[in-house]
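Students often ask why we bother encoding 3D structure as a string. The short answer is that it lets us treat folding as translation between two languages. Here is a chain of 873 residues written in the first language.
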Amino acid sequence: MRKLVLFFGFILLWNTGFATHQRAGEITYKHVSGLTYEFTIITYTYTPSTADRPMIDVFWGDNTSSSIPRQSKISVGPDISKNTYVTTHTFSSAGTYAVTFEDPNRNYGIMNIPNSVNIPFFIETIIVIDPFLGSNSSVQLLNPPLDNGCVGVTYYHNVGAYDPDGDSLSYKLIDCRGLDGLNIPGYVLPQASQYITINEVTGDLIWETPMIQGEYNIAILISEYRRGRFMGSVVRDMQITIAACNNKPPQIFRSDTCVVAGTLLSLDILVTDETSTQITLTATGAPFLVNSLPAIPLNVSGAPPLRTEFIWQTTCAHVKKTPYEMLLKATDNGPQVNLTSFKTVNIKVIAPAPENLTASAIRNTIVLQWDTYSCRNAKEIHIYKKADPSHFEPDICETGIPSNTGFQLLTKVDTSKTGYLDDGTIIPLTRGREYCYRIVAVFNDGAESIASNEACAAVIHDAPMITQVDVEQTSENEGVIFVSWLIPPMMDTLNFPGPKYEYRIFRSANNKNNFEYIASTYSLQDTFVIDKNLNTKEIQYFYKIEFWGENKQEELEYIETSDPASSIFLTIYETDKRLELTWNEQVPWKNEAYVIYRFNEGTQQFDSIAVTTNNYYKDIGLTNGMTYCYVVKSIGLYVLPDTLAPLYSRSQVTCGEPINNIPPNTPDTKITTDCENVKFWWSFPPSDSYLDADQYYIYYIYYQPNYQTPFVCIDSFFYVSPCDSPTFCSHIIQNLPSVTGCYAMLIKDEMGNESNMTPKLCFDVDECDVYSLPNVFTPDGDGINDTWLPFPYTNVQKINLEVHDRWGRRVFKTEDPDINWDGTDMRTGRPLPEGTYYYGCDVYLYTLDGIKKKLLTGIVMILRDNNKAKQRF
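And here it is in the second language, the structure alphabet:
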């Protein structure tokens, strides 16, 4: 008896030593150098417990572990101690490692962890070491993992995660973990009147609302990503104490903002509270942790409403693509429990615009100049270009050049540059067009500055200006194009006084390369040419004009070449009851509109049918099989040096015939079966004009016996009645070897256009009664129940049936699913005596996964007295 008492006492001491202990904690790390990292393990424990941990074991995920001494233990509240352990570890190679810590016991009485005092406490941090992604430090969690709330009052929390590398973070609630890192059996999220959730982007936790007072634990997984790649994660296991109180949490009023780097940011913050007399407002986050000029710390207290100011002198070093997150935390002095509210404020530090951009035309080039960029940490300057002014004005906090402004990226230059020469090599320059530019500074992380002012200039007109490339006649070998141009607006008469001048005309087929000389004119005023014997029906032609003049030495010298200009080339896509016209041209002037002409057989003239600003037009409501011919005329202008308009050019004549090449629509379908036949149902939405009264349609039914075999067509039929939803048409599929399988429909019109095949619909073997056998038959020759037959069946390929008598002797065998046994012995052919016989039957069934075997066993009775049989049956 004495031994038993001593042993029981040892058990009590053991529980006292190890129970009522861990409340919360996490593991974080910082990169030191190479493969070496500094790890910090923080735990919060129940202070009165005798289970102290001056030393803990940490497992590094590389098959090694370390015993780490405690660096500090401080009291942070009633019965709560904060324990900090710090050490370094060097990994042997790059890779992904799970760093873990496990303690034998959590504290007693956690409401959502059954028997919490005997459940281990487990936390884990994943570290990814990848030299291609660069060094990485984990998130730092700036708010403690212990908090309070009230029953019936919405609870808010934020861990205050800060990533020193600027990686993207995501948040997720996961199960708390116990022994060996496994999810704790019976663990549930705290009970809520509505929900408990966490915002995966901001990390804001909302518990709407706590229902029962007590201590609860939750686990939050914080993952970090860099350029879309996973960089690691930290699991925080935290504890929330819910009490019965009528307090309400404070409310924080402050919205997101932006600031131009180099200016002083001053934000007004308001905190209110209906039920408290004192509020303390603190702030944590990236603005207070940057290396250069961090924000002024914020920690103020006072009676509500509390007004204060956040101040941060920003610099170019603070420019970042993603916003800085500042987490505001307001805590009241509630009568029962101090409640806390959180507010995440996003602060985007944007780079200032490059200043004083100018554009000047020098002959055939445009010279850009700007001031030295003020942020020396910028990576490069991006130069954007477009034809004609954009009238773009950046919004507040808007950086870069929006895609809808029409600007194109011209080039990138180093930030040390303050100028650029645009000679049209990358994006062509054409005379008579004004070109506008903006520049943007870009930083290493992809952050962009505010766009610069817009600077515009036009190339000097010292070359002929083509004004017209007009197809006068369409033919494969007798086509005619009229080409005209203007005298160079800004002739250099000082160096080329004349009086001799020459225009040399060059032509290229289908592109702006490989020009060949075709003609010359020898008068300054002789500014047109008629180009004949062309294939204007099939070829688009390009022209350019060289300008030659007599110099001071009375020699003919090359001066300049015009910008190339092409004819308008029209193509037609033929489809059902319409023709789709598209055209293209490459000209130095600006075409603002196009007139579409269609040939009128009655008047034998081309009639104008539409005007558009696009390079396409759809002529609808046409008759299939009828020929329609078109011409497109452009209306354009030159803007500089003076407006010259209108400029007209015509395309070649192009003809087309509408043709029915539109496949029928795909119907909605369903199938039913009586286990002998399959009924296929289909219908079209009411708005679908899927049937043309002038056509016939063929419906094809496709069948797939199982998933391993391809679809084959098993039936086809005509059907012309409309089947608008909700009305369904139907067709019965008969004489199938099995209804098991998948079915689909395809519709084809008389032109051979096929619809898409409908989604397949399937029956498996369990849709119908399985193969089964009666337990009695009466082979007495009266014509009633004389043979043993199965009940009606389907989906059976074959069977393997054997019948034995009571001594095990086989008396019948067949592979015929219909059986048709008359009760005679298979060996003697004589009728078997009345009695009970035993059968085993392998049934081979058609299924969607192929032929499957099913075993049937049972008894069958042979009765010669029909009255007895009827009674038994």
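Translate back mentally: The longest strand covers residues 229-243. Keep this in mind for the problem set.
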